[in-house]
Design goal:
heterodimer; A: alpha/beta; D-amino Acid Aminotransferase, Chain A, domain 1; 6 helices; about 25% strand; B: alpha+beta; Rossmann fold; Dna Ligase, domain 1; globular
Chain lengths: ~230, ~300
């Protein structure tokens, strides 16, 4: 079974679980964390029970996890009293970090202590990684009252998508090797890097750690990745 | 120059500032109560983060700062922001400055006590406890559950159990007793951590680099932080336990930690938590030495 950890409002994630139905893909939302049935123990992961889609499952039924939530937002905990939501969100995020980092099957991407689907890098940290990975970028400055990275129409952007060291998409003209190096530096399984054109040069624009499950190629690649990992409990 | 980030009424920050002043070390205090009034400019230059921070009465270049000691609080809970609309520009400016200073502390080519990312393991008790176990420390048998039946089984197994919240939000460690069984259904509404109670003697061990400062804690309460009769005295811990404390501090990427240990009645040492931003001044028996060591670390050029 593939678990898709996503917001209740994430229609794309919901659709993906339908597409993966033959593998029994199930949506795991923050609301599930507040349901009766979770049984976890530090050091005893094989005997855990989890709750997904409102139902209890043995952990051994999970063969892979796709994480689409960087954190759990208080405002999305609709079933919890508004005054209790900030505390509940902190507790649920803490629990999700423990769960996603402990489960031994493949997780795309593994969490870090400040982000549930990879490193919570700021643009400057990606730029420093670009320097190390020899990915072209444009030096920028962060100033008071200036909003960084104004949105550029995505149609103007080129992109490279990698999953577990393999290329899923490359419209960048030669940046694939650099993106693979970036993925290694960021210690992530999935990475999409957007590039923009600046004075005829293709340069780093931003990085995305959440797989776009609306794309059939990404869904297929994730399924193949989970299948090929031959994970066994 | 040494930068201090936080509120100056915070005892550890104040102690370190006084210590640095005693050594005539130049300091700059970035006041969390005034974060919406700072101006900044940050950029990457040759893989280093450079720039400047200015306020009405001060300005400094990031490159001139050789060490940073941070004791940040949740700025949104400070009284200065109590009446500020969270959609206002003042609120947004404060949030942007916090982002910027966190980034600087993360990337600064300076001695930073501690890097923000290294402090984050404290955000999840079970996550950190797993790491503690992986580092070779004994931890109490621990479950995290929303299942009342699992709690009852755990209680029957260990007889003596405590429970606590799992995030970094402070909660009082409480002993599970028979009266709690009537309201055990509440567990289903939020994952809660239950832990075998270990009877024994508490120790707080502060690690700074390779230095270890141990305090023995005597308290009548299950959670000594909230007890009026808590007393601490300087103590010596076995060398192999001190070595583990140094190891886990390094493993978590910290320069400075406050580790909660308990020596069980049978002599086994258990680790409960690594505090990644320790308020060490409440351990008065060791605080002067820790301040001295912290100041020395921060002041060295």
């Amino acid at each position: 079974m593939i678990l898709v950890f996503a917001s209740e409002l994430d229609e794309v994630a919901r659709d993906a679980t339908t597409d993966w139905s033959e593998q029994e893909a199930v949506l795991l939302t923050p609301a599930d964390i507040f349901c009766k049935g979770w049984r976890t123990r530090i050091g005893g992961v094989r005997d855990w029970s989890i709750v997904a889609n409102g139902q209890q499952w043995p952990i051994r039924s999970v063969s892979g996890v796709v994480s689409r939530l960087p954190c759990i937002l208080a405002r999305e905990l609709f079933d919890i009293q508004p005054d209790d939501r900030p505390f509940a969100a902190a507790e649920a995020t803490a629990f999700a970090l423990f769960f996603l980092s402990s489960i031994p099957c493949p997780v795309v991407n593994r969490p870090t202590p400040n982000c549930l689907n990879g490193p919570n890098w700021q643009p400057e940290q990606w730029v420093r990684a670009c320097l190390e990975a020899v990915v072209p970028f444009k030096a920028s400055c962060r100033r008071t009252n200036e909003v960084i990275n104004p949105e550029t129409a995505s149609s103007c952007l080129r992109s490279v998508i990698v999953l577990a060291g393999k290329c899923l998409e490359d419209t960048s003209d030669g940046c694939l090797a650099g993106v693979l190096r970036l993925a290694r530096l960021a210690n992530v399984t999935f990475l999409q890097v957007y590039f923009m054109q600046d004075k005829g040069e293709t340069i780093f624009y931003r990085a995305e750690l959440t797989p776009d499950l609306s794309k059939v190629e990404i869904r297929n690649a994730l399924r193949e990745y989970f299948d090929s990992s031959k994970w066994s409990w | 120059m040494v930068a201090l980030w936080g509120m100056i009424e915070d005892p550890p920050l104040a102690a370190v500032q006084r210590g640095l002043w005693d050594l005539n070390v130049e300091t700059v205090h970035i006041d969390q109560r005034r974060i919406s009034g700072y101006f900044y400019e940050l950029a990457i230059q040759d893989s280093a983060l450079v720039g400047c921070i200015r306020s009405e009465d001060n300005a400094f270049r990031l490159e001139d700062v050789k060490a940073i000691y941070l004791r940040p609080y949740d700025w949104s809970q400070l009284e200065e922001f109590a009446d500020i609309d969270s959609y206002s520009e003042k609120w947004a400016a404060a949030a942007r400055f916090e982002d910027a200073i966190t980034l600087w502390c993360e990337m600064a080519d300076a001695e930073v006590v501690n890097r923000p990312s290294a402090m984050d393991s404290n955000n999840s008790k079970p996550y950190q406890l797993s790491m503690i176990s992986d580092c070779g420390f004994a931890i109490p048998d621990t479950i995290i559950t929303t299942d009342p039946e699992a709690v009852i089984a755990f209680w029957r197994k260990h007889h003596n159990v405590v429970y606590k919240s799992i995030s970094s939000r402070r909660s009082i460690v409480t002993r599970l007793n028979a009266g709690d069984l009537d309201r055990l259904d509440e567990v289903a509404s939020c994952p809660t951590q239950f832990q075998r109670f270990i009877e024994g003697t508490d120790y707080r061990v502060h690690v700074l680099g390779n230095q270890v400062f141990a305090s023995k804690v005597v308290s009548s309460s299950d959670d000594y932080r909230y007890s009026a009769d808590t007393k601490t005295t300087a103590a010596t811990i076995p060398a192999h336990i001190a070595a583990k404390c140094i190891f886990i501090t390094n493993k978590l990427g910290l320069l400075f930690s406050g580790i909660d240990l308990r020596e069980a009645l049978d002599g086994e040492w258990f680790c409960f938590e690594v505090n990644t931003c320790p308020g060490y001044t409440s351990f008065e028996d060791q605080a002067p030495q820790i301040t001295k060591a912290l100041v020395k670390l921060l002041a060295q050029d």
